[in-house]
Specification:
CATH architecture: 3-Layer(aba) Sandwich
Number of domains: 1
Radius of gyration: 17 Å
Helix content: 25-40%
Bound molecules: manganese (II) ion
Shape: globular
Number of helices: 9
Number of strands: 8
Order of helices and strands: EHEHEHEHEHEHHEHEH
CATH superfamily: Ureohydrolase domain
Low-confidence stretches: none
């Protein structure tokens, strides 16, 4: 246990040992790691901040579900090396694999977005071509490398696309508004579904959700990764790499509710919350709310 890890558990859930993980259990794992954050580091403090923020919310979600009816188990924070990306990712992947083997749902509290590479490695190995990914992010994270690190938080989707079992047509990026020239070139031969934040704004949420529902129908199982910077910095000032022009918290919740209702949710993460740059816990509170509302859609039967 290090100084930035938390001893609290999410949403008043119990803390259990791994051996008690079973079918349909929602397994929360804190991943205090920000070893690839170059601009604003500090997301290693996020698991603790999100857990604390989650305590104030009612167990009844906005769609009337009761979180107390779910079997939520908080496995605590992983102990991770902060300057060795590969080793840290290996530890994350092993933990997620263990959760999947026990037919439980992994829910990760990042950490920088790089941890999602490790999570999806485990999912792709377990579910093969059945897994679809909804990628909520201000950025495309499609760079080949970032500051000479191929497993950086700016390269997450690029690494995911290289994994065996991952099909491009089963991936949708939602809410992005930043594309680098290198990424633009890469996209010329890609078949990922893309919905920019501007497109969502122009269409309106209702019409966008109709479109998204059509996409979700083609997916057998869904993993949702939420980079908190998908929200506008006004709604999430404390993120690792803010980009103006984003979604409101209400829009994001609407999108996540639609995903929860229309798909078979298999796991999720919320990443890039950066407490040292947060004000009045706005970002931690948004992340906690997003997490609890989305978690309510996990089915008790795996
Ligand atoms: Mn990202």
């Amino acid at each position: 246990m290090n100084f930035f890890s938390s001893t609290e558990t999410i949403g008043r859930s119990k803390k259990k040992e791994g051996e008690k993980l079973g079918k349909g259990v929602v397994a929360v794992i804190g991943v205090p790691f920000d070893g690839t954050s170059i601009y604003r580091s500090g997301s290693r403090f996020a698991p603790s901040a999100i857990r604390k923020a989650a305590k104030i919310f009612s167990p009844l979600t906005s769609s009337g579900k009761n979180l107390h009816e779910l079997d939520i188990v908080d496995l605590g924070d992983l102990d991770l090396p902060q300057t060795d990306v590969k080793s840290a990712h290996e530890i994350v992947r092993n933990r997620v694999s263990e959760v999947l083997t026990r037919n439980a749902y992994p829910v990760l509290l990042g950490g920088d977005h790089s941890i999602t590479i490790a999570v999806v490695k485990a999912l792709a190995h377990f579910f093969k071509e059945e897994i679809g990914i909804i990628y909520l992010d201000a950025h495309l994270d499609l760079l080949e490398d970032w500051f000479m690190e191929r497993n950086s938080h700016a390269c997450v989707l690029r690494r995911i696309l290289e994994l065996e079992g991952i099909l491009q047509e089963n991936i949708a990026v939602i809410g992005y508004r930043s594309v680098s020239p290198q990424e633009k070139e890469f996209l010329e031969n890609a078949s990922i579904k893309l919905y920019s934040s501007y497109e969502i704004f122009e269409k309106g949420l209702k019409e966008f959700l109709l479109d998204l529902t059509g996409f979700l129908k083609g997916l057998k199982r869904v993993y949702v990764t939420v980079d908190v910077d998908v929200l506008d910095p006004a709604y999430a000032p404390g993120s690792g790499y803010p980009e103006p022009g984003g979604l409101t918290t209400r829009e994001l919740l609407g999108i996540l509710h639609a995903i929860g209702r229309k798909s078979r949710l298999q796991g999720m993460d919320i990443v890039e919350v950066c407490p040292p740059f947060d004000h009045s816990n706005i970002t931690s509170l948004a992340a906690a709310k997003i997490l609890l509302e989305t978690m309510s859609y996990f089915k008790p039967i795996f």
